[in-house]
Amino acid sequence: MAERARWSQQVTEGSNALDLEAGVFTLDDPHDIALSLQRSAERSERRKTDPFRSAMSMLTFYINRAGHQLSITQRERLEQAKDELRSLYGRPRRRP
Protein backbone atom coordinates (compact mmCIF):
# COMPACT_ATOMS: atom_id res chain seq x y z
CA MET A 1 0.00 0.00 0.00
CA ALA A 2 2.88 2.39 0.71
CA GLU A 3 4.03 1.96 -2.89
CA ARG A 4 0.65 3.12 -4.15
CA ALA A 5 0.70 6.13 -1.85
CA ARG A 6 4.15 7.04 -3.10
CA TRP A 7 3.06 6.57 -6.71
CA SER A 8 0.07 8.91 -6.45
CA GLN A 9 2.10 11.44 -4.47
CA GLN A 10 4.76 11.34 -7.19
CA VAL A 11 2.13 11.95 -9.85
CA THR A 12 0.65 14.86 -7.91
CA GLU A 13 4.01 16.49 -7.17
CA GLY A 14 6.18 15.68 -10.14
CA SER A 15 4.08 15.16 -13.23
CA ASN A 16 2.73 17.76 -15.58
CA ALA A 17 -0.11 18.12 -13.15
CA LEU A 18 -1.18 21.28 -11.39
CA ASP A 19 0.37 23.05 -8.45
CA LEU A 20 -2.66 22.86 -6.18
CA GLU A 21 -3.61 25.16 -3.34
CA ALA A 22 -3.31 23.42 0.03
CA GLY A 23 -6.46 21.65 1.19
CA VAL A 24 -8.39 22.26 -2.02
CA PHE A 25 -10.18 18.91 -1.91
CA THR A 26 -11.25 19.37 1.70
CA LEU A 27 -13.13 22.63 1.14
CA ASP A 28 -16.81 22.51 2.06
CA ASP A 29 -18.21 24.39 -0.94
CA PRO A 30 -18.03 22.73 -4.39
CA HIS A 31 -17.85 26.18 -6.00
CA ASP A 32 -14.79 27.05 -3.89
CA ILE A 33 -13.13 23.79 -4.94
CA ALA A 34 -13.81 24.60 -8.59
CA LEU A 35 -12.50 28.16 -8.22
CA SER A 36 -9.31 26.91 -6.59
CA LEU A 37 -8.75 24.36 -9.36
CA GLN A 38 -9.43 27.04 -11.97
CA ARG A 39 -6.85 29.36 -10.38
CA SER A 40 -4.29 26.57 -10.20
CA ALA A 41 -4.89 25.51 -13.80
CA GLU A 42 -4.61 29.01 -15.16
CA ARG A 43 -1.43 29.80 -13.20
CA SER A 44 0.32 26.50 -13.83
CA GLU A 45 3.26 26.36 -16.18
CA ARG A 46 3.47 22.58 -15.86
CA ARG A 47 0.27 21.68 -17.69
CA LYS A 48 0.31 20.30 -21.22
CA THR A 49 -3.34 20.94 -22.10
CA ASP A 50 -5.92 23.67 -21.66
CA PRO A 51 -6.79 24.84 -18.12
CA PHE A 52 -10.24 23.21 -18.07
CA ARG A 53 -8.91 19.77 -18.97
CA SER A 54 -6.05 20.07 -16.50
CA ALA A 55 -8.34 21.08 -13.64
CA MET A 56 -10.92 18.38 -14.44
CA SER A 57 -8.21 15.75 -14.77
CA MET A 58 -6.76 16.59 -11.37
CA LEU A 59 -10.20 16.47 -9.74
CA THR A 60 -10.98 13.12 -11.36
CA PHE A 61 -7.54 11.80 -10.41
CA TYR A 62 -8.14 12.73 -6.78
CA ILE A 63 -11.59 11.11 -6.71
CA ASN A 64 -10.28 7.92 -8.29
CA ARG A 65 -7.22 7.69 -6.03
CA ALA A 66 -9.20 8.35 -2.85
CA GLY A 67 -11.64 5.62 -3.82
CA HIS A 68 -13.46 4.04 -0.92
CA GLN A 69 -11.77 6.33 1.58
CA LEU A 70 -14.10 9.14 0.52
CA SER A 71 -17.33 9.41 2.43
CA ILE A 72 -20.52 9.63 0.39
CA THR A 73 -20.77 13.31 1.34
CA GLN A 74 -17.21 14.04 0.22
CA ARG A 75 -17.68 12.19 -3.06
CA GLU A 76 -20.92 14.08 -3.77
CA ARG A 77 -19.21 17.40 -2.98
CA LEU A 78 -16.37 16.59 -5.39
CA GLU A 79 -18.80 15.46 -8.10
CA GLN A 80 -20.66 18.77 -7.65
CA ALA A 81 -17.32 20.54 -8.00
CA LYS A 82 -17.02 18.97 -11.46
CA ASP A 83 -20.29 20.65 -12.48
CA GLU A 84 -19.10 23.94 -10.96
CA LEU A 85 -15.87 23.66 -12.92
CA ARG A 86 -17.80 23.03 -16.12
CA SER A 87 -19.91 26.09 -15.39
CA LEU A 88 -16.84 28.28 -14.77
CA TYR A 89 -15.48 27.33 -18.18
CA GLY A 90 -18.81 27.62 -19.99
CA ARG A 91 -19.06 23.89 -20.61
CA PRO A 92 -22.39 22.05 -20.48
CA ARG A 93 -23.21 20.27 -17.25
CA ARG A 94 -23.50 16.50 -17.31
CA ARG A 95 -26.98 15.08 -17.38
CA PRO A 96 -28.02 13.06 -14.33
TrEMBL record:
Top-level taxonomic group: Bacteria
UniProt-recorded name of the protein: DUF3175 domain-containing protein
Organism: Crenobacter oryzisoli
